[in-house]
Each structure stands twice: as structure tokens, then as C-alpha cells.
Design goal:
Blueprint (H helix, E strand, L loop, with lengths): L7 E3 L2 E3 L5 H8 L12 H12 L1 H16 L2 H26 L6 H8 L2 H33 L7 H16 L3 H28 L5 H6 L2 E4 L2 E4 L2 H14 L17 H28 L4 H6 L3 H46 L5 H7 L9 H17 L2 H29 L14 H15 L3 H21 L8 E5 L8 E5 L8
Antiparallel strand pairs: 1-2, 3-4, 5-6
Helix pairs in contact: 2-8, 2-11, 2-13, 3-10, 3-11, 3-13, 4-10, 4-11, 4-16, 4-17, 5-6, 5-16, 6-7, 6-13, 6-15, 6-16, 6-18, 7-13, 7-15, 8-11, 8-13, 10-16, 10-17, 13-14, 13-15, 16-17, 16-18
């Protein structure tokens, strides 16, 4: 019989050793520790950077920002710095209070009313699978540029790569972490190429880009209006995003709640610098702003103009490495979100029991397979362009919930221990709420309609879920006497959830 790490069965007596800080906090929340703590702070930060995929943000997602806001794309990213800082402070406090694998979904669930936790998990999963499908489809052009004789379609390359990475995600978590941290090095090299291009061949003035932004109207550059600036904020969220992924590995991070808070803050600061510096440099290196803003991939135009084909090949190689790394990290991250929701009984009981199971490597294997399958379907059959553009609205809506949770928890949960407290309450959550609501309401009508559909579907699912969950007061937890891939439903604490 398998012996659980928390107890040893000896002649019908259970000997319980002193449990660590992490296990003690999970026990207070009514959760048995079900994932294996083997990751350090640098490893978790590396996974967070990989999920963010700075190369994807700088090369691909920035194209949308430049189309919407012209060179104000630079100003929008600079405005995102205090917003990202405020979000990280909120996530650090809430994450240290509730170090659960469900990440932002779990934070919302512990603080806000039940229906909003379903809204959070639906948004989380939609963002995750759409982002991973878009990442997979972005690999093909770079790979074919590196290998001219390759004639495989973007969809085929995405599916083959996803299946391969799923095999890695099914193994021990430290293997995936080591691979992603190693690949991040190549990603930094690719971004370094962009920075070098600007240093060697500067063509634009940073001050003019920030204080006198322009946008391409037809074939001419015109000034950016206030309405355009506001509209640029939503797609700007897709560029610097994903640093919250550190929370998804909270039950596998050693070091306690303060280590988790540190991971969130370090990851947020790192990705902000890693993304914004080469993004600014890409515009500075552009010989012509008209050609830059009119190019299908503006950043590639700058690199090719400054460094020629050799620089382009280096960027291609870095992009393929970075996108592969991001796919693996997002797959690992999303599967843990699905696992956390299943453990909370969000899905019908048979599905929750299966999704909350873990394989012999003590990772949520079935959840990995489900996420990978959905991503494959999206990559092959969905209108990915619309979904990618919709990501900005979905991300903004999710961060609104985080801001509200960080604001409300100081009032409604004063008795809960806070290993980390963000300063200047209530300013950080108010910044998050104000900017994200502004970005959300200024979305195009089609994306707002899609957001309303997702919100309505979430609330409808919550109403239907009451057929199999009574006040959401049960949780799926491992049976200590069963094999690692078998779980059973047991009563659990409400853990601060409003009825």
C-alpha cells in the first residue's frame, strides 16, 4: 500500500510528523497537499517568464498594439508599468494568503461570492487555451523561415509540437521547469538582437515616439487622438501578461507563502523590463515609421532593415525556442488551473474526480490531456484571429475581479493572516480596477459582445452547477490509502466562500 507523505500507517495507528508551513496553510483551507514541492523561486519565476513569452509579446502581440495605436503603442506599454506593479502587489498579497494551484481563480473563490469564481475559471480557461493555440500557430512562419524546404501547415506544426510537449508536461514538474528555464536563455538572445539593432542603427527619437505619437492613416502618418490612446490600452494587456502564472505553481513551490509573493513580484518586474526595452528599441531602429507601421510584423521589419538576413535568422531561432517554451509552460499552468477547479468540485462530480487526479509523477496528468486536446481543436478549426483579439477583453475582465478581491479582502477578511501585505491600501487595487474597466469598456463592440456571452455562459453554468454541488462546500481530495491516480470526494471547508 502506498504511504502518504503526511502520514504512516503502523498497526492501525497514524503517526503524523510536524508539517511544514505550506502544508499547514493548505490544511487550514481544508486541502490535502496533492502536488509535490520541488520548485525553487528561480524555477517558478522562469516558468512565469516562459508563460509570458516576451518574444511572442514583442514580435507578434505588439503588432496588434501598433495597428490600433500606432507609435502610441510605446506610450501604452509605459503606462502599463504602474498597472502591472499594482496587479503584482495585489496578486502577491492574495497569493500568500491562499497559496493554491488554482491561481487567480482560487483567489477570487476565497474572497468573492460564488458566481464570480465561476466567471474567473471560465475566463482563465478561455484565455489559456486561446493563447496556447495562437502560440502554436505562430511557430510555423518562423520555422519555415529557418527551414525553407519545410512545407507543413501552421496547423500541423502546432499539433505535432503540442503533442510532443504534452508528453513533457506529463512527467515530473521539475523536468518541464528545467527545459523552460533553459529555453528562456535563447529567448533573451532573440530579444537582445532587437536591442542591438537599435543601438547600432538608431533612426527614431524616443521622446518624439512617447510625446508625439502618430498612427498610419492610409499612407500618411497622422496624430494619435485621445480615443485611440484609450482604445490601445486593451490590446496592451496582451503584451505584458502572464506573470500571474507563478501562482499556478504555488503548491509545488518550496519556501512558504512569502516565497510565493516574492516569485510574483520578481516575475512581474522581470517581464516588464524584458518586454518594454526591446519593444522601444524596435521602433527606434525603424528607418521609416510609415513602413514600420505598415509592415505585417513591424518588429521583423526593424530587425531586417538594421541587421539583414543574419539578424532575422537569429530572431527566427529565438522565436521558435521562445514559442515552444511558452506552449509548454502555458500547458503546465492551465492544467493546474483545471486541476484546482476540479478539486473544488466546480465540474460535475465524475469529471471533477478524474480531473483532480494525479499520475505517478504527481502531476495532474488527466487535466494536461484535456487542455492539450482542446488547444489542438482550436488550432485546427477555430477562427483564431478573432479569439486572439478577444484576449484583451477577457484578460481585462479577469484583472477587474482580482482588483476587487484585493480591495474587499482587507475589509471582509481582516482576521486572515497575511504573510505579505501590499502598501498604500487601497491605491493598488483601485488602480487595477480603474484601468482595466476603462480598457474593457473601450473595446470594439464585437469583442464586448463576446465578453458578455462568456460572462452569461459563466453565470448560467453556475446556476446549473447547483444541481450537483450544494453551496460548493465539498472538495475532491486524495484518498491517502489509494493509488495516486484515484481520488474520492470528501467534505471540505467552505474556506471563506460566501453562500
Amino acid at each position: 500500500m502506498r504511504q502518504d507523505a503526511a502520514s504512516v500507517n503502523t498497526d492501525a495507528k497514524v503517526v503524523t510528523p510536524a508539517i511544514d508551513e505550506e502544508a499547514a496553510r493548505l490544511a487550514e483551507l481544508g486541502i490535502d497537499k496533492t502536488l509535490h514541492r520541488t520548485l525553487s523561486v528561480p524555477a517558478v519565476v522562469g516558468l512565469g517568464v516562459a508563460v509570458t513569452s516576451p518574444t511572442l509579446s514583442v514580435v507578434v502581440f505588439s503588432s496588434i498594439v501598433f495597428v490600433v495605436g500606432g507609435t502610441f503603442g510605446i506610450g501604452a506599454q509605459l503606462l502599463m508599468i504602474p498597472v502591472v506593479a499594482a496587479i503584482c502587489l495585489c496578486l502577491a498579497e492574495l497569493g500568500a494568503m491562499y497559496p493554491l494551484a488554482g491561481a487567480m481563480y482560487s483567489l477570487v473563490r476565497q474572497v468573492l461570492p460564488q458566481p464570480l469564481s465561476v466567471v474567473a475559471i471560465f475566463h482563465y480557461l478561455v484565455i489559456g487555451v486561446v493563447a496556447n493555440a495562437s502560440i502554436g500557430l505562430s511557430v510555423g512562419p518562423f520555422l519555415r523561415d529557418l527551414i525553407p524546404g519545410l512545407h507543413a501547415s501552421d496547423q500541423l506544426i502546432a499539433v505535432v509540437l503540442l503533442v510532443t510537449l504534452s508528453c513533457v508536461a506529463l512527467t515530473r514538474v521539475e523536468i518541464g521547469a528545467a527545459i523552460t528555464v533553459g529555453i528562456v536563455v535563447f529567448e533573451l538572445i532573440a530579444l537582445g538582437v532587437i536591442t542591438v539593432a537599435a543601438l547600432l542603427h538608431p533612426h527614431q527619437n524616443v521622446g518624439d515616439l512617447v510625446f508625439h505619437p502618430t498612427i498610419l492613416h492610409g499612407h500618411q502618418l497622422v496624430g494619435v487622438t485621445t480615443a485611440i490612446m484609450v482604445a490601445t490600452l486593451a490590446p496592451a494587456f496582451t503584451v505584458i501578461n502572464g506573470f500571474d502564472a507563478t501562482l499556478g505553481f504555488s503548491e509545488e513551490l518550496a519556501g512558504g507563502p512569502r516565497a510565493l509573493a516574492k516569485s510574483v513580484l520578481v516575475c512581474g518586474a522581470a517581464v516588464t523590463v524584458i518586454i518594454i526595452v526591446p519593444l522601444i528599441c524596435s521602433v527606434v531602429a525603424a528607418p521609416s515609421l510609415t513602413a514600420f507601421l505598415g509592415a505585417p510584423v513591424p518588429v521583423m521589419y526593424s530587425v531586417t532593415s538594421s541587421l539583414g538576413e543574419a539578424g532575422t535568422k537569429i530572431l527566427d531561432l529565438g522565436a521558435v525556442a521562445a514559442l515552444t517554451c511558452a506552449m509548454l509552460s502555458v500547458l503546465m499552468y492551465d492544467s493546474r488551473i483545471l486541476f484546482g477547479a476540479a478539486r473544488d468540485g466546480v465540474w460535475p462530480r465524475p469529471a471533477s474526480v478524474r480531473l483532480a487526479s494525479r499520475n505517478r509523477f504527481r502531476v495532474p496528468g488527466f487535466a494536461v490531456v484535456v487542455i492539450a486536446s482542446v488547444v489542438c481543436v482550436l488550432a485546427v478549426a477555430a477562427d483564431i484571429t478573432f479569439l486572439v483579439n478577444f484576449l484583451g477583453a477577457a484578460i481585462a475582465a479577469l484583472f477587474v475581479l482580482v482588483g476587487v478581491a484585493a480591495l474587499v479582502s482587507r475589509v471582509t477578511q481582516r482576521e486572515v493572516a497575511r504573510p505579505f501585505r501590499y502598501p498604500l491600501w487601497p491605491i493598488p487595487p483601485l488602480i487595477v480596477i480603474a484601468i482595466t474597466v476603462l480598457a474593457l469598456v473601450k473595446q470594439e463592440a464585437s469583442y464586448l459582445h463576446a465578453e458578455l456571452v462568456l460572462l452569461g455562459a459563466s453565470l448560467l453554468y453556475w446556476l446549473l452547477s447547483r444541481l450537483w454541488v450544494s453551496n460548493w462546500t465539498w472538495r475532491v481530495t486524495p484518498n491517502p490509502g489509494a493509488p495516486t491516480d484515484v481520488v474520492e470526494a470528501q467534505p471540505a471547508l467552505a474556506a471563506g466562500i460566501a453562500d
